[in-house]
Protein 1
Amino acid sequence: MTDLLSAAPEDPREPMSFRDIKQVVLDRIESRVWPPDSLLPSEKDLAEEFSSTRTTVNRALRELAEEGYLERRRKAGTRVLNAPVRQARLAIPLVRDEVVAMGASYRYVLVGREELAAPGWLAARFGLPPQARVLHVRCMHFADARPFQFEDRWIVTDSVPGVLEADFSAIGPNEWLLQRVPVSNVELTFSASRAGAEMAEFLDAAPGDPIFTVERMTWLRGAPVTFARLYHVPGYGLTTRI
Amino acid sequence: MTDLLSAAPEDPREPMSFRDIKQVVLDRIESRVWPPDSLLPSEKDLAEEFSSTRTTVNRALRELAEEGYLERRRKAGTRVLNAPVRQARLAIPLVRDEVVAMGASYRYVLVGREELAAPGWLAARFGLPPQARVLHVRCMHFADARPFQFEDRWIVTDSVPGVLEADFSAIGPNEWLLQRVPVSNVELTFSASRAGAEMAEFLDAAPGDPIFTVERMTWLRGAPVTFARLYHVPGYGLTTRI
DNA sequence: CTTCATATTATGTATAGACATAATAACCTA
DNA sequence: TAGGTTATTATGTCTATACATAATATGAAG
């Protein structure tokens, strides 16, 4: 097995790629050859060591910094972070795609649809004017005829031209919106809530069951677009890897 | 306001950076100038349009692909993804840092510590041999004297030299581990569970309350290191933005 | 000795060209 | 006409150099 702490691959003819360099640097960080808070050699010095160029070394170190291992500042140099600020990346798929990826078939059912003045709590969350109108849509998503997710969504009608003409009987609001509204900013909040009576009925749960809940707020060019609460069937877990 | 759909900034003397190019391309995607599934002009053509080089255009498009907007393949070109596969990035801070960031003061208390054979469910999860030993540590994390998080952790003793000598009375196992064990691979699962009697007592909750739960499994160079369940005080939400 | 100005250094990013390679298009042969 | 081969193209990445700029070190002056 190649000694990854060495600078060069065993075959001297094979140049070190930016990925090779990342791996060597990461190995040195993890083995404490370069301990937390220590200053790395300059890019210029590393380029010499790896028989590479500053641009290639820069890319390797920049990506390690983006991944939370290093801190870089001009002139100050590159430092190993004391506690890596690791970041998990969560893919946010369409619920249809998520169900299909589970190997199940997807089904959608509209539960309710009404146009109304934005409730106070929503106007407050979004900073909406008092008379703002929203479309409130509730729907169910099924996986192989079993409940998977209950969706409770409010759409700001001024932000989505044509939304009042959409009846959402055949297609869910999220898929409809994705076709029409590119969304720039999303805020997600994961939490646990308690199943109320209606929730329990739709999700085949018992009232009081703990429900994994995702709140999703979206904006387009600074204007609020939607607020959705997604309630998952009991037992659901959202998994990601770093 | 500068018309961002134009290729060049108004001031012809200011060259377009890779960030400018990203923004123009993103604007064209969001405004459907380049609709979903469409093929973008080649990097060479875009470099000409932006009076730039392939390397600069490549960086802009590569980052947009990493952010989930584009799909790129050699020779096949660059396409706009039908549904952006957006990814949220979750910073995974130390619980101490999370509490301090909230403006509260942090306190740690060891609840229990015992060495034992790995329970069957854990051996199964990690693929451990039947006689594997683990250190089971339970502890509480407080924010301003209020319960914040209950931590239930199993540490594979073979993977962590010195762990049996650690009593964890003054410092939590996670901080202790971070000082000694760089962790390469992490799997996180977010879910909702129900507060049992002990949990309710520690977290100042009622039995049966929904509890936002994070399971964290870690490996180093392929070997299992820890399995932790983090239970959060009722009302806790984990927020991230895309 | 302290403060301010200047020099130096290390990273951030751009350019131009080169080579590698995956994927598609075009061409040739049976 | 279909299948196989070859050419072409578009992206992936590297090199070498240059310029920008943030941050630190050094030196000069009061």
Note: Chain A has two domains: 18-80, 95-232.
Protein 2
Amino acid sequence: MAPRSDEAQAFFHAVYSAVQEIPPGKVTSYGHIAKLVGTPQRPRQVGVCLKHLPSDPSERFNQYNVPWQRVINAKGAISLRSRPSAAHNQAVALEAEEVTVTTGALGELLVDFGLYGWFPRILPSEAAQGMVPSDEDDTEGDEE
DNA sequence: GGATTGACGGTCG
DNA sequence: ACGACCGCCAATC
């Protein structure tokens, strides 16, 4: 059943747990989850975990108790995969949570995370250092 | 059992 | 600012 090493299974476990912490109506990125589980260099593996999210409700982590839909890519869009319909499915699931999803010029499904914010906004490591990115503190001043 | 793929992201050109 | 490359590693061919 579990053709993966114990270490890999622990990784899956950590990823699923982290994703479960994302509040409804908010989203985060694969890379962010990767950082949270202590492996910032493996955002792809986070995608692998979600891809193989068990459909069996009897499993401790399954596609019903793990809000996989709240994980998008760093571009703020729903990542395309083998079956485009799956991406659309994710968009529908997000809209059910009152998260606005718009279609880009290239047909990409953009999540308006700007209205809802990322989660978590501050990483534990950053908070420990007292570093709070708050918002883009650049000199652009493009908004507000 | 070796090679390729992929729900990503950072770096480099 | 955009595109090509590289790293990473379980799953799949």
Note: Residues 29-31, 34, 40-51, 68, 71-75, 78-82, 86-87, 90 of chain A lie near DNA strand B (CB under 10 Å from a C1').
